[in-house]
Amino acid sequence: MFDRVFVNATGADGQSLNLAIRDGHFISLATERPETGRAEVVDLQGHLVLPGFVDGHIHLDKSFLGDRWRPHRVAATLRERLADEKAALASAAPIAQRADALIRQVASFGTMAMRSHVDVDATTGLTHLHAVMEAREKWRGLMDIELVAFPQAGVVSCPGTADLLDAAAREGADVVGGIDPTTLDGDADGQLDIVFGIAQKRGVKIDIHLHEAGAQGIEQLHRIAARTRAAGLEGRVSVSHAYALGDVSADEVARIADALAAAGVSIMTNAPGDRAFPPILQLRAAGVRVFSGNDNIQDAWWPYGNGDMLQRAMLLGYRSGFYTDEELLVALDMATEAGAAVIGKRDYGLKVGNEASFVVVKAPNAAAAVAAAPAGRVIVRRGQFWGDAPRMQFEPPEAVPAASGLHG
Amino acid sequence: MFDRVFVNATGADGQSLNLAIRDGHFISLATERPETGRAEVVDLQGHLVLPGFVDGHIHLDKSFLGDRWRPHRVAATLRERLADEKAALASAAPIAQRADALIRQVASFGTMAMRSHVDVDATTGLTHLHAVMEAREKWRGLMDIELVAFPQAGVVSCPGTADLLDAAAREGADVVGGIDPTTLDGDADGQLDIVFGIAQKRGVKIDIHLHEAGAQGIEQLHRIAARTRAAGLEGRVSVSHAYALGDVSADEVARIADALAAAGVSIMTNAPGDRAFPPILQLRAAGVRVFSGNDNIQDAWWPYGNGDMLQRAMLLGYRSGFYTDEELLVALDMATEAGAAVIGKRDYGLKVGNEASFVVVKAPNAAAAVAAAPAGRVIVRRGQFWGDAPRMQFEPPEAVPAASGLHG
């Protein structure tokens, strides 16, 4: 038997759904309302339930959210941007405080797991990592946080970083990062030797930021795929952004997609607004896992982002020309299941036996939820509401004739 | 003296703002809190106030909002899409009902004026126009609605449409529309003769949908600019979409921008997700008025859109690479002042003497509001709240350690 049942919900396909729960886990999900007996009954009023969102790429140490507004500053070079960012973060509120504010905000949208990159370089050392680990500890049980030791300033070109990445992997980072091995470090094999070496030595995963464009970027992806197979790290390596995949012909994408699929290298895109990005459907058709994340949120890099992965799914579709329900569900998969698989989140999703955690949204089905990305959410974790008493009043004010309906 | 004062607000620039109101109009806007005397005092709790949004391009007769979800259907040709749309709308809820639902939703986001295109063709006649006029009447006083008689199926190529456009202008349409004179009608001069003829005869404005690409589209813009000057219609002609401006070189844009500016032809873009669109800053720098609207909202053309013009401003910036505060404010201008000027909305904006209508948002300044597009809104019309008792609780739930904070 179950001790609680959420009735009158709507499932992803738009059909009726009733979710029975015992000890914080699903024991049935059915279109028919079960005999409720002595179980507590909660009416979801016909609203849609979605699995918790997974943000596959976020920077918890960078956002100014929870601090004052800082107008974006134009930087002429990458090095100028990095210096500007360091100066801005030095005068901002402590990282643990800002990370906490950001986690709080994304949790309120229904995100339940994330992969956060955290800057590691010769001047910051492991200070960012330790601060974000503090925030992670505070949110344990409500937010699964996988941490990437991210060499924002380069690896080979930033002396000392290699040792720091190794130390980070020893002290709590789950993933070792890399960044533009050729254009930033000028030594692709040098950087990849270090990154893959740490992954093998420490048993951590790999996630490499790759902004390199065109043929150069494609060559780098082939190199990463080959090293992944050589190291036996299939399924444990991701490349974030991989803009080059949006720059080249479909034939070239087909070749590298086969190599990525064979090596189990996954691709992360946030669907940037004003530049080309990977062709999602082609990669998926070739067997490549493609997932998503918000990336920068109101930080020194850009002013956009609210942390909502349902809005991110909308943006993925908006930018990719996804119109059909099937395509809209691809965008949702990238914000949920695909990211969960990359992070290795267990007990995840709307299936019997899994943790009874889900997001309640006003929408007739999951495709519609992606298209409109309604902002109102009610969050359920292990069968219980998170936050204030749930308000399932998602309706705008009643229509009113003329100027009545105004009041003091 | 004033009878009501909203204190402790934040203005677009992030400075303190206090808004004193008498008889529904602003009588002062000041950083200092005025002596309130016997006036009623409303505390805006430090939240930002923005002018009401203006949706410069919406289709009130097309959206399925307020009806059931209809999965997007792939159409091979424009004619197939038009046939598919007619079939879908024929089985949908009545237009007046759907238009009412859409107006209600956009009003709840803070839109206070709009230009709605309404299909006029040989089979629909003026039925859509009459239905939308019914919805317009219902919302009079809360939503200023300018109506465009829109020949979706063509003018020359759809016999009878010319007379219907003329009848529409006589019966209540404020603007006569056109569409792709060359590619849809195959007779640019034929269509423009009719459209400009009706505008001159009936004293209505012009708004032409122009999807024509590249050099052909630019040629059409030159033709429209020349006709506008010849007809003495400077300031009364708009071109919607004008995708061609995103297809050609900066030099070519510079030439046509000068012609558009000289003719007072304004350009509407909604910043589409997966195709090129007009370069906003270059056009504005040349003196062209550029405004925005949501365009299609969950209709037969595409599944996206929620009607929120603040989110649309975010998308304009996201797609255009607007990062600085100054650029973000351009996007906001396109969703407010620029559209108000096109529609000719009087008594508009946060200035002494104007109608005391505004939107309350949680953001530190207007640029930040565009970047994050927070969904929570409180709407004030002529000094009074619209809708339910205002909830200025925009905060997500408190951060909570571990799994406490969950409750039944």
TrEMBL record, chains A, B:
It comes from the Bacteria. Keywords: Hydrolase, Metal-binding. SUPFAM superfamilies: Composite domain of metallo-dependent hydrolases, Metallo-dependent hydrolases. This is Amidohydrolase family protein. The keyword Metal-binding applies. It comes from Paraburkholderia tagetis. Pfam families: Amidohydro_3 (PF07969). Gene3D superfamilies: Metal-dependent hydrolases, Urease, subunit C, domain 1.
